[in-house]
Amino acid sequence: MSRDSDLRALDTALRDIARAVRRAALRPAGAEALTDSQSEALRFIVHNPGAAPGELAALAGMQPSNMSVALRQLAEYGLIERERDPGDRRCSRIRPTPKALAYAREMQALRTGLVLDALDAMDQADRDSLVAAIGALRALGAALGEASPAARPNGPVRE
């Protein structure tokens, strides 16, 4: 295989893995059925409590209008609270509720369990290869984060 086809195969494999985990991870009992956008927004809220909606949109690589819709829905589900920014009363800060934190913990445990079960079903050589690739995959994630349109000061590059 050529380098380009290897890299395309890696890209496809990573997207297939993410999709498979998302599909296999059923929501916790009694939890709302969140869309991918809502789940992604909630993930950034949980890891960045007190961020402003615009900051969350930039972090998640979402359009501000899409983040606004997700925030409105998450508020309806009781998963977030809005509070006024003490430095600028016109702005709000978004915080996860205890319900959101419990949901996030349950989803993380569920996803981790799914991945560990799948790894247990694989042969040792494949598991060893995946463990050896963790550092490189983290570096790839960091490089992608630095290259994302949200991370660029002038926004997305249009071609």
Structural commentary:
The protein is mainly α and 159 residues long. Helix content is 64%, strand content 9%. The protein has 7 helices and 2 strands, in the order H-H-H-H-E-E-H-H-H. The chain has a two-stranded antiparallel ribbon. Strand 1 (80-85) and strand 2 form a beta hairpin.
Secondary structure: elements and pairs:
Elements: H1 3-24, H2 36-47, H3 53-60, H4 64-76, E1 80-85, E2 88-96, H5 98-120, H6 124-132, H7 134-147
Antiparallel strand pairs: 1-2
Helix pairs in contact: 2-3, 2-4, 3-4
Let me know the largest β-sheet. 2 strands, antiparallel
Strand arrangement in the largest pleated sheet: 1-2
Shape: globular
Average residue pLDDT: 85
Helix-and-strand structural type: mainly alpha
